[in-house]
Design goal:
Layout (H helix, E strand, L loop, with lengths): L1 H26 L7 H27 L1 H15 L2 H16 L3 H7 L7 H25 L3 H15 L8 H10 L6 H12 L12 H19 L19 H37 L4 H41 L7 H12 L4 H13 L6 H25 L4 H14 L5 H14 L2 H18 L3 H5 L2 H57 L1
Helix pairs in contact: 1-2, 1-13, 2-12, 3-9, 4-6, 4-11, 6-9, 6-10, 7-10, 7-16, 8-10, 8-20, 10-17, 11-12, 12-18, 13-15, 14-15, 14-17, 15-18, 15-20, 16-20, 17-20
Length: about 525
Amino acid sequence: METVIKSKFKESLTSILPIAAIVLALSVTLTPLNPGTFLMFLLGVLCLIAGLAIFTMGAEMSMQPLGKKLGATLGKSGKVWLIAAISFIIGILVTISEPDLHSLAEQVSGVPNMVLILTVSLGVGIFLAIAMLRIVFRVSLSLLLTVFYIIAFGLCCFITPDFWSVAFDSGGVTTGPMTVPFIMAIGAGVSGMRSDGEDDSFGLVALCSIGPILAVLILGICFDLHGGEYDTSGMTGAVTDTRNAMEHYLHGFSSHAKDVGIALLPTIAFAALFQLATRAFSAKKLIRIGVGIVYTFVGLVIFLTGANEGVLPTGLSLGQSLADIGSGYLLIPVCMLIGYFIVNAEPAVYVLNKQVEQITAGAISASTMRLALSIGVSAALGLSMLRILTGISILWILIPGYVIALGLSVFVPKFFTGIAFDSGGVASGAMMSAFVLPLAIGACSTLGKNIMTQAFGCVAFVALTPIISIQICGLIYSLKAKRAISRFTSETEVFLDYSLEVAKELENRQREVNN
C-alpha cells in the first residue's frame, strides 16, 4: 500500500509541477501577481498534487471495479431493455451533480440553473443508453457520431449565436472526474461479454459528450435564451494575509465537500442497491470499494478546492496581464505552452490513459496517449486565444474540425476512433474550467471582447483537437503495422524460396551420391 501511495504522489508531482513552474516563471517576468494571489496559487498547487494522487488511487479501488461488475452483470442478463434503462438512470444520476456543470449553469442567463442542469443530465442519460445499445447491436461509432454532429450543427441555425459556445462547452464539462471512471468501466464490462467486444469498449464518453450539446441546443429552440455577461467580481480571490487565505480554503473545503458528497451519493445508493440485488462482491471486496470511495471523496474535494480557490483567480489575473502585452498576441504561445502540460493534471485523463494501456496490453502506452493529448490541447488553446483576438465565430473552427475528425475515422482502426473521441471528452475537465476558462475570461475583459461568445468555447476546442491528434497517431500506428506485416510477408517469401533452393540442392546431391 505504501508503494502505491508513493507511486501516485510521484505521478501527481510530475503532472502538476510543470504548470506551477510556468505560472511562477510568468509571475516573476511578464505577469507579476499580487502577494495574495501568489499565496493562494502556491496553496492551490499543494492541494492539486495531494488531491490528484488520492483521487486516482480511490478511483482505481472503487469506481472502476464497481462499473465493470455492473457492466458485466448487465451484459450477462441479455435483456436489451434493462441495459438501456439502467444506463439511462445512471447517466442522469451521475451527471446531475457534476460540480463543473453547476459552475457552468450559474453563468448562463435566460433559463433557471436547474432547468439547464436537468436538460444536460437528460442528454447524458439518453446518450449513455444509446452508447450501450451500440455495443449490443454493433453499430458503427463513426456513423452515429457523423449523424449526431450533423444534427447538432444544423440546430445551430435555429438559436442565437450567443448560445453556441455554451452548448458545445456543456458537452465537455459533463464528462468529468465523477462520470468518466464509472461509465468507461460499465462499457468495458458490457463489451467484455462479447468475443470481439474490446473494439467497442471505447466511445461511451464520446456519445455522452454529444448528448448534452444536442439537449442544450434543443433547449435554446424551445426557450428564448440570451447569454448573460460573465461577472468576474467573485473570481479575484484577493486575500490580505495568511489567516485570510486559510479562511478562503476552509470555506472552499466545506463547499466542495458538500458538492462532491452530493455527486457521490446517487452512485453510492445505486451501488448499494446493486449489491443487495446481485451479491456481486464479497465482504472483502466491498470493504475495499468503500475505502476507495472515501479516497475518491477526499481526493476530489482537495483537488477542486485547490483548483477553484488557488488556480482560478491566478488564471484570471494571468489572462488580464497577458492581454495587455503586445496587443494580446503573447496569449497564443503562452497558452499553447500551458495547454501542452495542463492536460496531464486532469484526473479523468489519468483514468482513460491507464485503461487504454491495460486493455491494449501495452500496445498503446499511457505515455503515447499523454503526448498525443498534450499536442492536441496545446493546439486547442492556441486556437482559443486566436479566436478571442480575431473575434471569429466558433463554428468557423468547429465545423471544419469535426469534418477532419470524422473523415479520419474512415481511415484509422475503429478502436482508435473510440479512444480518440473519448479523449476529447476527458481532456476538457476540472482544470480547463478552473484555469483555462478564467484565463480566457480575463483576456476578454481586458480586450473588451464579448465574454459569452468569445471566452466560452475554449472547452469545446479542447474536446475537439485531441480527437484529431490521437487519430493521426492511429493512422501512423496502422501504417507501421501494415509495413511490418508486408516486411514480414516479404521476408517469409524470401526464406521459403531460399529453403526450396536448399532443398533442391540437397536432393540433387543425394541423387549424385546414389548414382
